[in-house]
Amino acid sequence: MDEEELHEVEVVIEPRFERLEELGVSLEEFEEAISKALDEYHDLIESQGDPDETPSIDQLRVQIGDRDFLLGEIAEIQITGDLD
């Protein structure tokens, strides 16, 4: 396989609405926090030489206000596509 060939992977992140409601987090706060966390995650992936050292996306830290959450705690995550 050519190194230049891109592998398409789709990541779908759906908020856990009940959990957000329990935490008093609005959908706008959630979306802003996820966007920022994903940008940081992308930067981390780009800076790492070994993809095996990159944490799983469900272990991604998301900061909302002054609180930190694991992405898997506040969202359902589905990853599909060519994961090789």
Quick description:
The chain has 84 residues and is of the alpha+beta class. It has one domain (10-80). The chain is 38% helix and 26% strand.
How would you explain this protein's 3D organization?
The model has no long low-confidence stretch (mean pLDDT 85). The protein is globular, with a radius of gyration of 14 Å. A two-stranded antiparallel ribbon has the order 1-4. The protein has one domain (10-80). A hairpin with a 2-residue loop joins strand 2 and strand 3 (67-70). It has three helices and four strands. By secondary structure, it is α+β, with helices and mostly antiparallel strands. Keywords: Coiled coil. Residues 20-47 form a coiled coil.
Q: Numbering strands along the chain, what is their spatial order in the largest sheet? A: 1-4
Task: Give the number of helices.
Answer: 3
Order of helices and strands: EHHEEHE
In terms of DSSP E residues, the strand content is: 25-35%
How many DSSP E strands? Answer: 4
Q: Cα-atom Rg, whole angstroms? A: 14 Å
When the domains are counted, the total is 1
Mind summarizing the main beta sheet? 2 strands, antiparallel
Q: Average pLDDT across residues?
A: 85
Report helical residue fraction.
25-40%
Intertermini distance = 11 Å
- What ranges have pLDDT less than 50 throughout 5 or more consecutive residues? none
- The rough form would be described as globular
The secondary structure category is: alpha+beta
